[in-house]
Amino acid sequence: MFANENNENFPSSTAGSQISMRSLNLLWPDYVSDPRTFNCPSDKFVTTATNAGITANDPFEKDECSYGYDRFHTQADDADVALVADRPSNTNANVPAIPSTNSPNHGGTVKPANAADVAGRGQNVVYVDGHVEFVISQNAGWYAADGITRDDIYGDDAATAGGTDTYITQDSTQ
Predict the structure, then answer these.
(1) Burial of 5 (0-12, 13-18, 19+ CB in 10 A)
(2) Which residues contact 59 (CB under 8 A, 6 or more apart)?
(3) What 3-state DSSP class applies to 3?
(4) Which residue of 33, 117, 157, 170 pairs with 106 in a disulfide if CB–CB is 3.0 to 4.6 A?
(5) Pick from 128, 39, 32, 117: which is nearest to 77 by CA?
(6) Edge-to-edge, what's the strand order for the sheet holding 82-86?
């Protein structure tokens, strides 16, 4: 609905800090009215109480939203480009030096010591064409020219894998 009303563009904000989360927050409350929509049942970090703290025009914090967002795409992109997925890990670093430590099912393929989430099961991914998949690898994005290699949706791997050069982030300060 948002794209239909905004010249086929997905939510994107360039104002202030925490741009990805500010962009995703553009859906609240006009397009998504229930804050629980932003709380994945498998996410042990985001609780009903913290999720209820969502406010309009204020970027989601990590304890309010279970998802990360890649704001750099439009409906004209390939159908297999990832837009939204279970958020990157709960560690302070949003994108670790080793992309494989990012977050299938909120906890990462390597469970961070300070995270209460379960690691390594996979993640839900929303793609440009609107379909959702549960995938067990962070390599769940855009297919490279070879038709086999997939983009790491949590890390900038365009130079090595021929991906989109953008990735799912949750740029919160928490």
Answers:
(1) exposed
(2) 16, 17, 18, 21, 22, 25, 171, 172
(3) helix
(4) 117
(5) 128
(6) 67-69, 82-86, 123-127, 132-135
Extended beta strands in 66-148, E state: 67-69, 82-86, 123-127, 132-135, 139-143
Q: Is the pLDDT of residue 78 over 80?
A: yes
Pair 35, 56: CB distance under 8 Å: no
Kindly list the distances between the CA atom of residue 25 and the CA atoms of 18, 51, 133, 140, in Å, as whole numbers in the listed order: 10, 13, 22, 24
- Dist CA 145 CA 137 (whole Å): 19
Tell if the pTM clears 0.85, that is, is over it: no
